[in-house]
Amino acid sequence: MKRTLIAFTLLALAGLFLVGTSGAADKSIALAVKIIRDVSRKTETIDWTAAKKGEMIYSGDHVRTGERSIAIVKFTDNSILRVREKSELQVLGEQQDGTLQKNVHLTKGEFSFDIQKQENEKFIFTSPTSVAAIRGTAGTMTRLDSGDIVIVLEGLVNLLNTFSNTSQDVGPGQTGFSYDDGRIVIRESTSNEANGARRAVNSANGSGKENLLDIEVQDEQNNKKRLRIRYRD
After folding, report:
1. Where are the domains of the chain?
2. Distance CA 195, CA 116 (A)
3. Rounded distance between C-alpha atoms, residue 77 and residue 232, angstroms
4. Cβ atoms within 10 Å of 103's Cβ, excluding its own
5. What would the pLDDT profile of 69-89 be if each residue is shown by its tens digit?
6. Does residue 229 or residue 166 have the better pLDDT?
7. By the 8 A CB rule, do 120 and 99 touch?
8. Which of 52, 86, 228, 231 is most deeply packed, by most CB within 10 A?
9. What angle do CA 214, 216, 219 make, to 5 degrees?
10. Is a pLDDT exceeding 50 seen at residue 6?
11. Within 13 A of 82's CA, how many CA atoms are on the CB side?
12. Which of 71, 69, 79 lies closest to 53, judged by CA?
């Protein structure tokens, strides 16, 4: 199947503070709700170790999948990523002026996404080539040697190529290409692209028993609130 291309540049982000069950102030922003086969996680202080279902993912953590392996990550706003095989990404979060900005930086591979539209929150995807601003959007992103791809099923993605500093919107039913030579190309998605993206998004949402996880959030002003994450096995 022909792959389409978009790219995203890394923004240095850190700062969402959440208090876990240990009571220590951490920057947890997501949960590993499903692990299939060979999935590893690297933190700011610990090198690659086997990831486990139910582990919290903190700002700055890396996630890597091996052959025929999948990781499903759910954020505190109930947004979902399904990380496909042979992929690697970093999850980052920053609290600025009352707004939480989350960044998924993809260095190789592919993931599907179902991002919930939230007030006072921003979501971006980055790679070494581009920045994609996401809001209430579902689709897939793939990183290739010559650039990256985004396939949009719902919502809107503003795709910026950082080499040329040009951007275009990618809407529902469209595929965006952002190349390392600075070009951006937008076209209608093929049926194979759209159907594959839809299957990946639906698979990430799960069909098993619904589970609830309550965590306590603490921001930079020491304000606290409890968040409830819903996920299915």
Report:
1. 18-232
2. 21
3. 15
4. 23
5. 999 999 888 889 999 999 999
6. 166
7. yes
8. 231
9. 145
10. no
11. 19
12. 71
Q: How far apart are CA 205 and CA 172, in angstroms?
A: 19
Quick check: helix, strand or coil at residue 194?
Answer: helix
Q: What does the alpha-carbon distance between residue 138 and residue 135 come to, in Å, rounded to a whole number? A: 9
3-state DSSP helix/strand/coil percent for the chain, to nearest 5?
5, 55, 35
Q: For 197, list phi and psi in degrees, rounded to 5.
A: -65, -40
Average pLDDT, the chain: 80
In this structure, which topology does domain 18-232 adopt according to CATH? Jelly Rolls (2.60.120)
User: Max alpha carbon distance in the chain (Å)?
Assistant: 49
Within 5-87, strands assigned E span: 18-19, 25-26, 28-36, 39-42, 49-50, 56-58, 62-65, 70-75, 80-83
> Residue 154: how many CB atoms within 10 A of its CB?
15
Burial class (CB in 10 A: 0-12, 13-18, 19+), 76: buried
The helix (run of H) or strand (run of E) holding residue 112 is strand 99-114
Q: Cα 113 vs. chain centroid, distance in angstroms?
A: 6
10 Å CB burial of residue 158 (0-12, 13-18, 19+) is middle
Query: Alpha-carbon distance 6 to 13, whole Å?
Result: 21
